[in-house]
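Below is a filled-in request sheet from our internal design queue. Each sheet records the structural input a requester submitted and the sequence that came back. We keep these sheets so that new team members can see what a complete request looks like end to end.

REQUESTER: design group, bay 2
PRIORITY: normal
MODE: inverse folding
CHAIN LENGTH: 339
BACKBONE (tokenized):
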């Protein structure tokens, strides 16, 4: 097995390399790729230094399996070339998720979709969608999911290293006076913002992503949540109402979900189902801090609601860089290697 990681110096790509090592993935050779700007850097893997290569030369390596974390534009250009040279590509970008010929896979939910890969590409879901899928799937199997109303609380690392840097910069700028200003009711000046549409430090921004439908004022993050949930759960008519929110948290995407089912689903029954669900861990108070660095989606605050028919509300949190990106890609690779 000759494996490549494209985007190996970025957040998700670095995590992929670490998780390949952590899980002892069986491979004969690992090649690391990134932009020409990052080529030449060294990354350690299994106690040996690997030199990062220019991604443009990756197809010539004739790899068996490639994990891509380099963005949609790069994936659209490079993935078909890699496939043409014999590789199966597991792509973390949005480039292929809506393609009906490309399986969109969460391993605990729809690994059977890996049985047909006509384009040689498997898509990894958006990190925000990923968090909820291992939770909603077993509940759907038990009671028939009809609709979900979702509000997400997305960390800044979901927008890349620039987002992390912007929050850190604004927190440093306000560290000495934020409390005093808050106590006397004054506005907090955190300095300029570029990555987000408003100041993120000490704030909540009800606009994660960019507007893609001017009429509905829906963002691309909200569109992804609807379309990807339908595809992964194999529910093409699932009703989804989603509001994506950016919060001043470094790692961990959260979601408050109210779900409607075909039949009543009690809190006790839902708790029993989720307690046995793969990739899920029940917590009294699931938080981003608790989810950071761990594999499962943390779920809690289960309660019945009569807002919608046969309603159940819950709160779910997951590490958006780990399970939300890198871990699921490696799990897909493991499933393909075992087939």
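RETURNED SEQUENCE:
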């Amino acid at each position: 097995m000759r494996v490549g990681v494209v985007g190996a110096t970025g957040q998700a790509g670095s995590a992929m390399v670490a998780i390949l090592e952590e899980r002892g993935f069986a491979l004969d050779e690992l090649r690391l790729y990134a932009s020409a700007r990052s080529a030449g850097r060294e990354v350690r893997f299994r106690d040996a230094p690997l030199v990062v290569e220019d991604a443009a030369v990756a197809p010539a390596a004739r790899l068996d399996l490639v994990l891509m974390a380099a963005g949609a534009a790069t994936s659209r250009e490079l993935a078909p070339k890699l496939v043409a040279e014999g590789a199966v590509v597991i792509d973390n970008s949005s480039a292929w998720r809506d393609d009906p010929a490309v399986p969109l896979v969460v391993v605990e939910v729809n690994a059977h979709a890996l049985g047909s890969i006509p384009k040689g590409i498997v898509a990894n879901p958006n990190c925000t969608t990923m968090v909820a899928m291992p939770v909603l799937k077993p509940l759907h199997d038990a009671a028939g999911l009809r609709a979900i109303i979702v509000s997400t609380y997305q960390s800044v690392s979901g927008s890349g290293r620039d987002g992390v840097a912007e929050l850190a910069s604004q927190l440093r700028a306000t560290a000495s006076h934020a409390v005093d200003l808050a106590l006397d009711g004054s506005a907090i000046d955190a300095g300029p913002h570029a990555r987000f549409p408003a100041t993120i430090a000490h704030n909540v921004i009800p606009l994660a992503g960019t507007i893609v439908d001017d009429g509905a004022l829906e963002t691309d993050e909200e569109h992804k949540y609807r379309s990807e949930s339908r595809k992964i759960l194999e529910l093409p008519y699932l009703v989804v109402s989603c509001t994506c929110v950016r919060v001043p948290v470094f790692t961990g995407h959260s979601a408050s979900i109210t779900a409607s089912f075909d039949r009543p689903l009690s809190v006790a029954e839902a708790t029993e189902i989720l307690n046995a669900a793969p990739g899920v861990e029940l917590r009294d108070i699931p938080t981003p801090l608790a989810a950071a660095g761990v594999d499962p989606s943390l779920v809690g605050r289960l309660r019945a609601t009569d807002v919608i028919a046969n309603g159940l509300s819950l709160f779910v949190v997951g590490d958006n860089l780990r399970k939300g990106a890198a871990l699921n890609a490696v799990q897909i690779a493991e499933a393909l290697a075992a087939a």
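SHEET NOTES:
- The chain has a mean pLDDT of 94.
- The first strand starts at residue 2 and ends at 6.
FILED BY: M.R.
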